[in-house]
Amino acid sequence: MSINWSEAITLPFILSVLTAIVSGVFAFIVLRRWYRARKAGKVRPHLLCWGIGLALYFTGAVSQALLALFWSPFFFGLWYWSGALAVAAWLGLGSVYLLVRRGNIARNFHMALILLSVMTLPWTLFLTPMDASVWHPGADIVTLYRDIMPREARGTVRFFSPIMNGLGTLGLVGGAIYSARLFRRKRILRHRMIGNWLIAAGGLMPALGGVFDEVGFPGYKYISLLLGAITIFIGFQIATHAPDEEAPLPAPITSPPSSSPA
Amino acid sequence: MQAFYPLMQELHNVLSRVGLLIGVVMFAAAFYIGIIRHGDVTRWFRAATYLVVALMGVSALTGLVMYASGGRPYDEVHIIYGAGAVLALPFFIFVEVTAKKRPAMGSYLWGFALMAAIIVRAIVTGGA
Questions:
Q1: DSSP codes of every residue in A123-173
Q2: Taking CB atoms and an 8 Å limit, are B81 and A260 in contact across chains?
Q3: A116 lies in which domain range?
Q4: In chain B, what residues touch A114 (CB-CB under 8 Å)?
Q5: Which of A130, A244, B59, B70 is deepest in the core (most CB within 10 A)?
C-alpha cells in the first residue's frame, strides 16, 4: 500500500486526526470514571453509555482520517456504522439512563440498541456493496459516501440510519427538554439540565455538519465533528458534577411500584 | 447430507413460521398480562419464552446445516436477520430476570415485538 502524502494531508484529514485525539481522550476519561464508580459499588450506566458513544466517535474519526490516506472497505464500513448509526443512539441512551428511572425502560432500550448494533455491524462491514472507484487520496468521505454506498435505503443497512439516529436524537433532545422542564418546575438539578443540553448539542453537531454540507457550506462539517466531541465532554463534566451526581432524582419521575410493566 | 436437504429446508421454513405465530401470540399475552392487568411475569410465561428461544435455536441450527451443505439464502442479509431472531429474546430475558423493579413484563413486550419483526424480515430475505 503506497500513500501519496502530499495529496492525502488536507484540512479534513488534520481535523479528523484532532477529533480522534480529543474524542479518544474524552472516551478514556468517561469510561475510567464509570469503571471506578463500578468498583466502588455504584451503578452508573449513563457513564458507560456516554463512554461507549465517545469511543464510537473516536472510532469514526480514526476511520475518517485513515480513509483520507488509503481506501479500505473495512474502515469505510466502520466509519459509516459508528458515525451514521451508533454514536447518536448510544449518547441518547446515556441521557435516557440518567433521566428515565421509571420501570426498566432504559434497560430495555439498552438491550434493543445492543441487538441493533450487533446486527448492523457485520451487515455494514461484510454485506454492504461499496464502489471504491470514486475514492481518491485526501477524499472528503462525508460527501463521497453517497456515491460509495447504494443510494437505495430499502433493504440495505442505510434503512437503520433514521431509526437509530431518530431514537438517539429523541433520547438526546428529549432528555435535554425533560431536564430543562424539571429544572423550571422544581429549581433543582441545574447542572444536569445544562449538561444534557450540551450533550444533545454535541451529539447533533455531526448531523448539523451534514446539513451545512447540503446547503453549500462543506467546510463546516469537519469542524462540527471536532466541536461536537468537545461539547459532549463539557456536557458530561457538567451533568455529572458532584452534587448532582450524588443527589437522588425527585419523586415525580419515579414510578409507583406497580404502575408500569415496562 | 444432500438427501436431507429438502427435509432441512422444510423444517427451517415451518419453524420460522411457527416461531412468528407464537411470537405474536406471546406478545398479545404479554400485553394482556402486563398492560391490561398490570401483572408480572409468571413461571409459565417464562417457561414458554424459553421454549420459543429453543425453537429459534433449532431453526438457526437447521439454517447453519443447510449453509454448510452449500445452500444459500435468497439474500445474504438473511443470516443477519436469522442471528437477530435467535438473539432478540435472550437480551430481554436477561433484563427481566435481573430486574429489581417489578413488574417487568415490558421486557417481553419489547422482546417479542422485535423478534416478530426480525422473523418477518428473515422470511422475506430467506426464501428463494
A1: HHHHSS---GGG--TT--HHHHHHHHS-S--TTSGGGHHHHHHHHHHHHHH
A2: no
A3: 5-248
A4: 91
A5: B59
Supply B109's cell numbers.
413486550
pLDDT at residue number A254: 46
User: How far apart (Å, rounded) are the C-alpha atoms in residues A92 and A64?
Assistant: 23
The answer to whether the CB atoms of A108 and B102 lie below 8 A apart is no
Q: What's the number of domains chain B is made of?
A: 1
- pLDDT tens figures, B78-108: 999 999 999 999 999 999 999 988 899 999 9
Tell me the per-residue pLDDT of B53-64, one tens digit each, with 9 for 90 and over: 999 999 999 999
pTM of the model: 0.86
Domain that holds residue B30: 2-126
Q: Cβ of A4 under 8 Å from any chain B Cβ?
A: no
Of B40, B101, B114, the CB nearest to A115: B114
Amino acid sitting at position B76: E
- A262 part of a folded domain: no
Residues in chain A: 262
